[in-house]
Structures are given as C-alpha cells and as structure tokens.
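Researcher: Final request for today, and then I'll write up notes for the group meeting. The sequence and the SMILES for zinc ion follow.
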Amino acid sequence: MSKRPYYTDSYTSSFNARIVETTENNGIILDQTYFYPTSGGQPHDTGTINGIAVVDVTVRETDGEVVHWLKNGVEGDEITAVIHWPRRIDHMQQHTGQHILSQAFIQTVNAGTGSFHLSDETVTIDLNVANLSRQQLAKAEKLANQIVFENRAISTRFVTLDEAKTLPLRKIPPVRDGRLRLVEIDSFDLNACGGTHVERTGSVGLIKIVKSERQAGQIRIEFRCGYRALADYDEKNRILSDLSTTLTTSYETVPASVEKLRVENKENGRLLKKLKIDLLRYEADEMVKNGRPLGSSTLITRVFEDKAGGDLRTLGIQLSKHDRVIALLGSIAGNKTQLLFSRHADAVGDMNQLLRAAFQKIRGGGGGSPTLAQGGGGKMDKTAVEQAIAHAIEQL
Ligand SMILES: [Zn+2]
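Model: Predicted protein-zinc ion complex:
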C-alpha cells in the first residue's frame, strides 16, 4: 500500500516518488503521494508529474490505492510531482472552515451536520434541523469566526477504533485498517477525517454564510472561507458600488432607492395602462368617422402592423361600443398574426362564423361569441390577411 504523507503534512506541494504500478488510461500508483484523492466530500488535487498534467486522483475501490490519472503516459520509474497549490489551499480553507462551522452549529443551536459538499463553485453543509432563524445563523457564524480569530492549533493523530469509541467524536466513519485519523481543533472540535486541513484556524480566514435553504427536511447552508470569502465580498462590494453610482445615492440608501423605484414603476404601469385605453378609445372614435355603410350598419376594417393582441382586443371592444359598428381588424406584430372581429349589439352578423370564414383563407384558428371573436396564427403577409377579411365581409 502506498504511503499518504499528506495525512501528517498538508503543506508539502512538491515531492519525489517512485512508480509502483501503471494502469490503463495513463493511471499511475506511487510508493508515496501528497496528492489528495477525491474522498470525504473534498475534491482531488491537480498538478503535474514529470511535467505531465494530473487530471484526476481517485481511490481504487478494490484495494484503496491512490491512482493518479495523467493526461499522457510517463517515462521511467522515478518522478517529480508538483501539486497546484492555489487549488489545494482553497480546499484546505473550505474544509477546515467546515469543521469549525459544523461544531459552531452544534454548540450554538444543537444542529448536527449530515453531509458536506465542496466543489469549485460552492461549499455546503446539510444540517439535521428543520428550521433556523437569521439570528441562529448569525450566532453560529459569529462563534465560527471567533475560533478563526483566536488562531487555535489544529492537530492530527491516528487512533484505534476502540479508542475512537471512547472519544466525543461528531461521528465515526467506516474504518479500513482498524485505525482512524482524528483532526482536533484545540479545545473546540474533535472529528474523524481523512482530508487536508490548515495548521491553525487563522489560516481559514473569514467564514461567511451566504445562503440557507430548506432541503428535504434539512437546512442547507452555503458558505465561503478565506480567499473565496474575499472574492465573494469583492464581487458584492462591486455590485453595490455600481448600484449606488447608477442610483446616484450612497450604498446605505440603495434598498430605499430601489423600493421607491419599484413603487413608482408600479404606479407608472397603472397610468400607462389607463392612457393606452384612452388612446385606443380616441383611435376608435377616429376610425368610426371613416367607416363605410353596410346596410343599416357601419363597417370598419383595418390591418395593423404593430398592434399587440391585447391592444387589438381593447380597440375592438371600444369600436363595438359605437352604434351599429362592425369592426373586422387584423394585426401582424412580431411573428404573430391576430384577427379580432367585434360588433355593436344592434349590428348584424355572427363574428364567430365570420372569423371561421376568414381562417379558411389563412392558417390559424380561434373563436368567440356572435359579437366578439378573436384568433391568430403565425407571421403572415399583409395582403393575405386583407384578403381573408374581404372573404369574411362577403359572408355578411
Ligand atoms: Zn476534515
């Protein structure tokens, strides 16, 4: 079994080793490795071996060996490996931060951690609790950061399973060779874990909870530690700063400014709707003046090239309020064609039947009542729509 000295030394980032086995697809096993393989919720390290990229590091299920998957094959037996440090230290910060935050949730609100997930984008823990208030989150976050600022020592040691059972561990994971690796944060947390951690809590940097949400009867906490917390602060500060520039206000008054805009926007929307109806009523009045007589009724036809379906309907309804008016309207807006047929209660004709007659000439469909019918189809040629309306008029 190859040695894993990262268990006792998480800070070595380059080392020499000997290849003891080569597998298919450019996998190699070394006599010792500082590369962390994906396990326990922590993703694998990346880096190079003899200058060749290490794209994945996994634990072989059959015997627990660490397999390094290289981009290309490697020559010879002796290798020099370099771990990509920015990725590793990020994982160490998030992972150690998780130990601290999990213990902080136990001590402040008695909420145990069910699972932990770390990826390039997010870090989360699922707490075995149904609800957490904003105050409870703040309390746990404050204790976690206090532990960081006290810069407590973090140590690791191996114990037997029997010894482990006598210790106040958060939980005991499956044991492979009768030994468990313990990670202890001085006078705060003791946990069985095979991951990589920083040496003192201060190196975790700020621990910031950014989100909490209910997830299948648990609470999922998303948080950021160290450089990730800094990047998060930087981004949010930039967004707030841009917003205060756009709104020409200080950042403290951005929420009030946005609320004011929201209320104004709602009021403007209401006003716009009213003005639109007024305008369509005025447009209807003008159209009635240019209507042509058809028996005892007045016929109005028009195909618009810019009216949305809702506006066409409002216009048709306004027209139908005029004495004995029959309005046969069309509109081609965007990739839609609309027909709206309406009439005054005392005018003649069944609008529903006329609409169906029109749709014999163009592709589409719709329906309604004898006094109001509406329908539509895809984008059409204006002449075709005019001809469909002319065909409907013939039925009158
Ligand atoms: Zn750990």
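Model: The chain is about 35% helix and 30% strand. Helices lie at 85-109, 134-149, 161-165, 226-246, 254-289, 309-320, 351-358, 382-394.
Researcher: Thanks, that's everything.
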